[in-house]
Amino acid sequence: MATATPVVRSETHPHVGSYAEVNRDVLKILSKPGPGYLALIALAAAGFGALGIAFLLQVFLGIGMSGLMNPVGWGVYITTFVFWVGIAHSGTLISAILYLFRAPWRQSIYRAAEAMTVFAVMTAGLFPIIHLGRPWLFWYLLPYPNQRGIWPNFRSPLVWDVFAVGTYFTVSSVFFFVGMIPDIAAARDAATVPWRRKLYTALSLGWRGTDREWKHFGRAYLYLAALATPLVLSVHSVVSWDFAMGIVPGWHSTIFAPYFVAGAIFSGLAMVLTILLPVRKVFGLEAYFTTRHLDSMSKLILFTSLIVSYAYFVEVFLTWWSGDAAHFEGNYVVASISGYYWWAGGTMLTCNALVPQLLWFRQVRRSVPALFVIALFINIGMWFERFVIIVTSLAKEYEPWQWAPYKPSLTEMIIMVGSFGWFFLLMLIFMRVLPPVAVAELKEVLPAPMRRGPAAVPHPIFEPDEEE
Amino acid sequence: MADRMERRDFLKVLGVAGGGATLAGCSTEGAEKLIPYVVQPEEIVPGVATWYRTTCRECPAGCGMEVRTREGRALKAEGNPLSPISHGRLCARGQASLHGLYDPDRIPQALARDGEDWERLPWSAAEERLAVALRANRGRAVFLSGTTTGTMDRLLDAWCAAAGVERVRYDAFGYEPLRAASRAVYGIDGVPVHDFSAAEVVVSFGADFMETWVSPVDYAHGFVQGHAMSGDRRGTFIHIGPHQSLTGLNCDEWLPARAGTEHLVALAMARAIADRRGGAGAGAASASAIAAVDIAHVADTAGIPVERIQAAAARFDNGGRSLAVGPGVASQHRAATAVAAAVAMLNQAAGNVGRTVLTDRIETSAGTGEYAQLRALVDRIGNGQVGLLLVHGENPLYSVPLPEGAAEAIAGVDTLVSFSSYLDETAEKADLLLPDHHFLESWDDWEPRTGVTSIVQPVMTPVFRTKQTGDVLLSVARRAGFGIPNQANTYYDYLRGRWSREVIAGADEEGWRDALRAGVIVRAGASAGATTAGTTRAATPGVSRPAAIGDVRFDAPLAQAEGDFQLLVYPSYRFYDGRLANRPWLQELPDPVSKISWASWAEISPSAAQRLGLDMGDVVEVTTAAGSVEVPVFIHPGIRPDTIAIQLGQGHTALGRYAQSREGEPRGVNATRLLAAEVDPQSGGLVWIQTTASVRATGDWEHLPATGKLTQGGREIALTTTVAEARRGGRIADLNGDEHAEQDPVLAGAHHDAHPMEVVVSELQGAGGFAPLTFGGAPQDYPPPGTYYGEYTEEHPRWGMAIDMERCIGCSACMTACHAENNIGIVGPELVKEGRIIDWIRIERYFAHDNEDLAETQSGGATFLPMLCQQCGNAPCEPVCPVYASYHTPDGLNAQVYNRCVGTRYCANNCPYKVRYYNYFTYEWPEPLNWQLNPDVTVREKGIMEKCTFCVQRIREHERSARLEDRALVDGEIVPACAQTCPGDAIVFGNLKDANSRVARIAASGRGYRVLEHLNTQSAIIYLKKVVVEGSEA
Prior knowledge:
The complex is a heterodimer.
Chain A: H1 19-27, H2 35-61, H3 76-100, H4 107-124, H5 126-130, H6 157-190, H7 194-203, H8 211-244, H9 256-282, H10 291-322, H11 325-330, H12 332-338, H13 342-354, H14 362-365, H15 368-395, H16 410-433, H17 439-445
Helix pairs in contact in A: 2-16, 3-4, 3-8, 3-9, 3-15, 4-6, 4-16, 6-7, 6-8, 8-9, 9-10, 9-15, 12-13, 12-15, 13-15
Chain B: H1 7-26, E1 50-55, E2 64-70, E3 73-79, H2 92-95, H3 97-101, E4 111-114, E5 117-120, H4 123-136, E6 141-145, H5 150-163, E7 166-169, H6 176-185, E8 192-194, E9 201-205, H7 216-227, E10 236-240, H8 246-249, E11 253-255, H9 262-277, H10 284-291, H11 295-302, H12 306-316, E12 322-325, H13 336-349, E13 357-362, H14 371-382, E14 388-392, H15 396-399, H16 406-411, E15 415-418, E16 432-433, E17 444-449, E18 452-456, H17 469-480, H18 491-503, H19 509-518, E19 520-522, E20 565-570, H20 584-588, E21 602-604, H21 606-612, E22 618-623, E23 628-635, E24 643-647, E25 692-701, E26 720-722, H22 723-728, H23 756-766, E27 799-804, H24 813-822, H25 829-833, E28 842-846, H26 854-857, E29 863-867, H27 877-880, E30 886-888, E31 894-896, H28 906-910, E32 917-918, E33 945-946, H29 952-964, H30 977-981, E34 987-991, H31 998-1003, E35 1008-1009, E36 1021-1024, E37 1026-1028
Parallel strand pairs in B: 6-7, 6-14, 9-10, 9-12, 10-11, 14-15, 15-16, 20-24, 21-23, 26-37, 27-36
Antiparallel strand pairs in B: 1-2, 2-3, 4-5, 4-16, 8-13, 17-18, 18-19, 20-25, 21-24, 22-23, 22-25, 27-34, 28-29, 30-31, 32-33, 35-36
Helix pairs in contact in B: 4-17, 5-17, 6-13, 9-11, 9-12, 9-13
């Protein structure tokens, strides 16, 4: 295995020197927070609190507190739901799919991406309940056994949603937690604060790092990755069927599943960048998230942007080609370019199709500020994409008598912004409590301390016997 | 272990906690204790409705009504099928009469003014005060009343005579020009009865006979009989006047004559007919008037081409089967008496008298007073000659223009007594309030027309501590010590006495009960001479009614003043003269033309709007010499560019929480404030169309609480066809079914003008793989084979509807009927603006173009399409509901389980017809409006989707009773509320599977089609295309 070169550097992380350095750099994050962090936590908690108050008011007074009306029955709530489900995508993509494809650049980012996935699903899960007219009866959607023999309607895409999102949440949380066990054990060993030690002791499930444990761990991780991979595709396909199964012009489209999945990955990667770029800066993790990582992610973003742009084009073209006025006028792109919602459609096209084209340039792909700004654009653009699909289609449907524009209300905006509060609250707590970078996996790609030459790129967990 | 939880303990805790949570979670709002009867009243069976027949008194027309009561509360008003006035139908005002009964702002008891406040009086004390005032003001007392007929009219005459009180009558809409002209031309003292059903050609000179004019339900019903396509026959309706209200919108042809020229057009048509016939037809007096007309000059003055006048005249000359009517309030200008006389002469010229114009009978209730008399009274009040003014049934301080200072003078009368049930503008100023019962709490009768006496009987005990005015008068007579003929203890006894003397002479108690059961007595052969209603009138200073045609002034000046727009005010279909403005159902009901609710608007034409740079909702200031109002603009294709129209009825400064805003501000504007108190010297009536107005944009914009769009936006929702095409489409099944011809395939020819793509799609689908569309199938083939929902069993019916757009006049009575039957919430103006109105059935009103003056194209009006749940066989709403709240019943209904609904709104998103409505809030029914709620229908709370289910409660009720009686359901037995009240009988409900049912036969008409059929929803409502005159498709 060993090569002749005397360089004791990782190919992917050339600036990381040793296992100890990894432990030190990563575990130092798990320390007492400073005032800046506390301020951020307070801000996020305030956002979440505002969401709670707005939601409670809506429960007591009625969903009329939103701007929803005839004919637009879904608006900001479902838009934000789809947005967060979309965000939830890249975490599993990075950790599971890239793991299976052995993309060597994933190690440093996947933990944060996975956390983002779990928290994004937890955020998304709020919205189906928030948007109900009678949220106290949400359990009617669950298939609980009852004497009356009443089950949910399994033909309804909303019930599929319950299962798809529920399954995705379960699997991604398990995947997230299992992958973290060795790192929690490392944190346990390094922890000095009593509550942290107690917490890590409980969460590490008695991990000692024996060969036997590593072997089982490796298998479990592999299988979970294999299990999670189809879910990446299925969840957003199912979410897209909430729309594609409908008869609404602009929704009823066979392209929706792949289109939504591509869009989800697109937005998820942008959100990973949005979170990791500041974290990288604040915690000095430049050695771990190298420009090479940024470059690779940018290429993936560019690729998914092209898919999404293609989908916009095909949608317009096919509805025009069909000659069906209702479908053509109802098409969200057409309606949003020419109609009342031109601002939403314009934002969508600019942010998702035009701005990402900058990523063709290598300098842009490797510039942190540029990437951060582009990622923000994409986040906004993808929210508007869902808004445009949902709202413009409903606002101008088949029946001309009931064409009317929808305007989001203050309550809806507070709840939408508040959902970011909830998400970042979870994210911030995670950053300080659990190891945000995969310590063990990083070590695997570092050269072994007592050996010359680079670490074996064939993954050690994937090929556990090769180390012998 | 002591602290271990035992299984039993666990279950206990779980039970208590879970039970508590369930109780908390299940509690719906407003759960209340139910208290059963302690002593069960006889004749009331809980859960079984009792019906009482009475007479609608919301306008003077006097439609026979029957009222459904449950457990002693009136729930739903319907037409009395025996009544020749209502034909078993009601308009929206009649449907909403229950909101008058349960109006939360009614005056609850007798009140006397106490400075700024009101002092509550027991009735005895109140009557004593009136008796004292009568004694004090002998010779200085006036009783002011609106239209009264029948027993109450007799009592008032007798009482006033005995009490030394002068009686003055006026009506806001009193038809004085019509009555004056009838006397001059026909020699009868009243408005003749019109038989629209016998008229194939109807010409209206500004008479809104489908809305408020004389007897709107009877006339609308008759109009549809005579006009709608039936067999190969179809009538023609020509509307003449500067503005299209709902009636005008139904025309086939519009001659947009300038305001004030209607009489000239009528004379020109008569002249053209005379020319065609070589001068024959009319009497000598009218012949000279007709001969003096120069058609070309008239055409020039009125602004319509000569050929169109001549063509209209040629149509009108139809062998006595035509009918000209007018004027209405919208054409009651200075020459209104001339219009009425010219219309009468036109009818004579066409030979209609005795065929469609029945001069041997009169519309007794079409006005009994005169505006001139009110004007004279006002002058006397101003001079201090009146010390006691009793006001009954009218609201003069609101409904008509009065001279300056008159309102203060009336308010300043020593003793102003009001009998109004509501605290209106006049009652507000009164010193003594003696609130009358609502008519649904009263004993009375009404004589709408010669030979027809309709009974008013109480359907429930009074809601408030009010007292019927008849009883008050009799009681006051006793207290004041004057006797009146046939004095009785109660008004009921007085009424019975008159009935046994005059109406059903010689009948015993059983005869009276039969009369009560029938609700109406029709005496065949009665003639106008037999009527005794107040037809003789004292001379009014300044009014010289024409005694003969020669006295009629045909050259009365056109209305003119400074200003660029002719100001046109017209009665409100919903509020009549404004008296019904505090009915929330009527306020929320979108106006049939503008589709605006809860507000006022000014109508101007698209070209005028363009000229002034105005858009829908821009606020304009309309100024006349009499006053000015600020009002938002509605751009109406059916109005002349030189005319601005404002509807009457809004702008109340009193009346209640619905007529006024929450802050007590008037809702909308009162257009009478733009008018001077001008009397027409020929008839004594008010000159309604009297001035031009200047219109100035204020720069403000108001969000109008409107629904819908002006046009279909290129979508084929409301389809039309032509007469020729409708005839070609095969023999058309007659609506009454007796002319039922060979079965045409359902929907044959329905898609002649469909998008070519739809044909392709249907071919593709027919080739296999999809459930085939049912083009060409017969109704009994429902459901189509191979569809998921096709598995109806043999014994289940397939409920469906046929809606003939030929017969829909857009009056929207069905919408109010639906609200009344189904406990639909009132959302209020703010939520209407937000698009949250709930109308299970709505009337879509589509113009051909939204920015083109109909006056330019001189074509017809609009197409009306009643849109309600289509009860699709393959319903898009059903599969998407995650909790089965939306599901399919075995008899083909798309049911909605309110208690199951969690409110995802997916069903509404997925409904292509957009007929599912959502409760964004929990809507309130302030006490006692909630007494009206139908106990057979769930009251929905916030967060629930609701929709039409063809009045499933009625279907089930009849199914149950059929089963109890061990019989099969009879076709036509089940009638949903919308179909029940439709004056045009446009909606027919029944079992589509039964090939002999009326609905199936009508559905087989060559004009049938289904809305959005290409979506394969397999809807159960078959629309019959409206037939339009060639070249004027809407």
